[in-house]
Design brief:
- The chain is of the alpha+beta class.
- The protein is built from nine helices and 26 strands.
- A six-stranded mixed sheet has the order 8-5-9-10-12-11, with helices on both faces. Strands 13-14-17-15-16 form a five-stranded antiparallel sheet.
- Strand 24 and strand 25 form a beta hairpin.
- 37% of the residues are buried.
Length: 442
């Protein structure tokens, strides 16, 4: 969706849902929510979010407990974590920072990708969209932040502006018009590097379409593209073929991308081809492999570590950081993220004014902040039957911690804890949609 809208200037809103439509358990929902949440934040050009579709199904419907046949309403620890994450989205800024890894590798997509969604057709299979994932996952698993490029947007100059190497295949989609090929050929001739993967043997190559009607007699749409580029690749062979076209370069490998991921170590030739294209032809720099992605947006650090990657090494973030996936909001000296895990952290070293009292993280929405001399007051509002968890930055250790409900009744916090190293106070209490007034004095 980012690649679909970015060249057009349209506003993009990301969705994450703490509950899936599939019937799973709370543990599964939590793992997938963390992964999806991290994924959306790894796109630093977007800061608009739909955070909770159908809130009633999240808070009022029971789902299975992990490793159990019994069901329960949302566990308190998960609702607190979810609210911390949702409220943090109000403060995560746009950023010009890039996700760690080699930039500028794109994979071409098109709306016709869904036309061939089938288990088997004329003995041809593309299980689980493997022809698409065959182009992307060998790179993603090696820490390359692959972009997607929509062929429908090729007429916009911004679409290919930052792309150094473009990967494409017609094993799983087809061009809707010959103009797509003219746009690609123009880009290559000006210095672009194109990688084509495909045996062109799926039955959809022969459907009655523009490339084989009205005077055209191409057996496959790629033949039209190759003609415009002035190249004649061999029809078979698993070795990469390299061609020059104007100032640019074209690589052709006669394998459908599904073979890269459905066969063990099937991606070796593909990765060698991408490396050569990126380093030698596009001259885009060193293409290095790793098993992680990292991005900083303001004081927020995002980490995702790949399983099935180049190593099983964890990614370590030096602290002090607040772990925003932990409902207790602990301050950590360092955070270790293992393969298959993600992390959402508040980097306390990025706080610009350490003398200004501020709620850094909270499972509630913060209103009516007042800073007066040696006191800091605010009102915290959150859903009923949930637990609020807050980490507050203060100039000094508070001598006074007062919590008051709407009626004026004093509330005893469930837990408080002062971290002297970072000058942050942890407070936990029940949430109230009418608000809990917090007064801190030092």
């Amino acid at each position: 969706m980012v690649s679909m809208t970015a060249p057009t200037g349209r506003k993009m809103i990301f969705l994450t849902d703490p509950i899936e439509d599939r019937a799973r358990d709370w543990g599964d929902y939590k793992r997938n929510y963390e992964a999806t949440f991290t994924a959306e934040l790894l796109y630093p050009m977007t800061d608009n979010y739909e955070v909770m579709p159908w809130p009633e199904r999240i808070f009022t419907r029971p789902y299975r407990l992990p490793n159990s046949d019994s069901s329960a309403l949302i566990p308190k620890y998960y609702s607190t974590q979810m609210l911390v994450m949702v409220n943090a989205l109000n403060h995560v800024p746009l950023s010009d920072n890039k996700v760690s890894g080699a930039q500028g590798i794109g994979v071409l997509m098109g709306n016709s990708l869904m036309f061939q969604r089938f288990p088997t057709h004329n003995s041809y299979e593309d299980p689980q969209f493997s022809n698409f994932y065959g182009q992307t996952l060998p790179l993603v698993k090696r820490g390359v932040p692959v972009e997607t490029v929509h062929m429908e947007n090729l007429s916009y100059p911004a679409t290919l502006k930052h792309i150094k190497v473009l990967v494409m295949s017609y094993s799983n989609m087809k061009p809707m018009s010959p103009e797509v090929h003219q746009q690609l050929a123009d880009w290559v001739r000006k210095g672009g590097c194109l990688v084509y993967c495909g045996a062109d043997s799926d039955p959809y190559q022969g459907v009655m379409e523009w490339w084989n009607t009205k005077g055209n007699h191409f057996k496959a749409p790629s033949e039209h593209l190759f003609q415009l580029l002035g190249i004649r690749p061999a029809a078979t062979g698993k070795q990469a073929q390299r061609f020059s076209a104007g100032k640019g370069t074209v690589y052709v490998i006669r394998q459908d991308p599904k073979e890269f991921v459905m066969q063990e170590n099937g991606d070796k030739a593909y990765l060698n081809m991408i490396t050569r294209a990126y380093q030698d032809d596009a001259k885009a720099g060193q293409l290095t492999w790793k098993n992680s992605f990292f991005l900083r947006r303001g004081p927020y650090d995002l980490v995702s570590v790949m399983d099935e990657g180049v190593s099983a090494a964890p990614y370590v973030v030096k602290g002090p950081v607040i772990d925003l996936f932990d409902p207790k909001l602990p301050v950590l000296k360092e955070k270790t993220v293992n393969p298959g895990q993600q992390a959402f952290l508040y980097d306390l070293s990025q706080v610009k004014d350490k003398q200004r009292p501020t709620v850094l993280a909270s499972a509630s929405r913060i209103y009516d902040e007042q800073r007066n001399g040696r006191s800091y007051t605010f009102t915290a509002k959150g859903p009923l039957h949930t637990v609020n968890s807050m980490r507050v930055l203060l100039p000094s250790r508070p001598g006074q911690i007062g919590l008051t409900g709407k009626s004026g009744k004093q509330i005893s916090p469930a837990q408080t804890d002062w971290d002297a190293l970072t000058h942050t106070l942890y407070i936990s209490c029940d949430n109230d949609p009418d608000g809990v007034k917090v007064r801190l004095g030092w």
